[in-house]
Design goal:
With 314 residues, the chain is an alpha/beta fold. It has a single domain, classed as Vaccinia Virus protein VP39 (Rossmann fold), CATH 3.40.50. It is 27% helix and 21% strand. It has a seven-stranded mixed beta sheet with strand order 7-6-5-8-9-13-12, sandwiched between helices. Strand 3 and strand 4 form a beta hairpin. It is globular and about 50 Å long. It starts with 31 loop residues before the first strand and ends in a 25-residue tail after the last strand. Keywords: Methyltransferase, S-adenosyl-L-methionine, Transferase. This is Alpha N-terminal protein methyltransferase 1. Its EC number is 2.1.1.244. One of its GO terms (molecular function) is N-terminal protein N-methyltransferase activity.
């Protein structure tokens, strides 16, 4: 499932923090817009209005409204063609640049960590909001022995199975797709200590703030020792933007960092995607760990080690 890319200019982007961090300088950024042009002055007001949640007490006073939020999001994507162009909202041509940037980012994180990500280790990844298996096919099975996929839209997942169980002729792969879970992230529980990397791309915007935090708290148990998350998502330049058509929210960098902090995650590395059409939202990548890194990620790059990667896709 994919949060739509189209942008709305709301000011300059925040500065990145490229160091291991528990987000000590994060301050709550309030206020935003919905796709009808209505202003919400606080996140508290937003979630009370859209999902019947009181985020201050972490309770839901209107479960039917919350079900409607999630049902509407899935229903939107059930009307979309199960293809790369479909899941990318008509921007299928950005796929190669997206994958190339993700590949470089993942390799930078691999190389910067002192953990063993060599080919001697059996590596497993989880692709969250996997859609038709685009990220798994073009990126993850080139790095990992096994990849599991979780996706709530049945016809997307069926297409992913077809594409990945019987790969296209000439497709260069390292690993294989193993498990296909048809579940939404707000109720998904990853298998404990199975994954080296949990990849979350263009899907977390469908979760409310509380479900976002709860998902990452649960998903931490799915990581192996030294495992990490990669989150790649649209970002608002300030505040937030709610798309009422597909029940999604585009968060600012500050908003993301606050929620990561609430989930008990540490920022290891972040980078902006380059080369996308100007009308699209800025897209930012985050690498997140469950513990602060105890070594210098630059000084302790792996040397002479064969990593799980092919040539850079371009």
């Amino acid at each position: 499932m994919f949060s739509r890319l189209t942008s709305s200019p709301l000011g300059p982007p925040p500065l990145p923090i490229n160091r291991p961090s528990r987000f000590p300088s994060v301050k709550m950024e309030e206020g935003g817009l919905d796709s009808d042009g209505n202003h919400c002055s606080t996140r508290l007001q937003l979630w009370a209005k859209e999902t019947g949640e009181d985020i201050s007490s972490k309770t839901c006073f209107d479960p039917a409204k919350k079900r409607e939020w999630y049902d509407k999001g899935v229903a939107y994507w059930e009307r979309v063609e199960a293809s790369v162009n479909g899941v990318l909202g008509g921007y299928g041509h950005v796929n190669e640049r997206d994958i190339a940037a993700s590949d470089r980012f993942l390799l930078d994180v691999f190389n910067g960590m002192s953990a063993d990500f060599s080919k001697s280790k059996h590596l497993v990844a989880l692709d969250c909001g996997a859609g038709v298996g685009r990220v798994t096919r073009d990126l993850l099975i080139r790095h990992f022995h096994e990849v599991d996929l979780v996706e709530p839209v049945p016809h997307f997942l069926d297409t992913a199975k077809t594409n990945l169980v019987t790969p296209s002729p000439g497709l260069s792969v390292f690993g294989r797709a193993t498990n296909f879970y048809c579940k939404p992230l707000q109720v998904f529980n990853p298998e404990e200590k199975r994954y080296d990397v949990i990849w979350v791309q263009w899907c977390i915007g469908h979760l409310t703030d509380q479900d976002f935090v709860d998902f990452f708290k649960r998903a931490k148990a799915g990581l192996k020792a030294n495992g990490f998350f990669v989150v790649k998502e649209n970002t608002a330049k300030q505040g937030f933007i709610v798309d009422k058509d597909d029940s999604s929210i585009t968060r600012s960098d500050t908003h993301f960092r606050e929620l990561f902090q609430q989930a008990g995650l540490y920022l290891y590395k972040t980078k902006l995607q380059r080369g996308f059409p100007k009308e699209l939202f800025p897209v930012r990548m985050y690498a997140l760990t469950t513990e602060p890194m105890k070594t210098d990620p630059v000084a302790n790059r792996t040397r002479g080690q064969v990593l799980n990667h092919p040539g850079i896709i371009s």
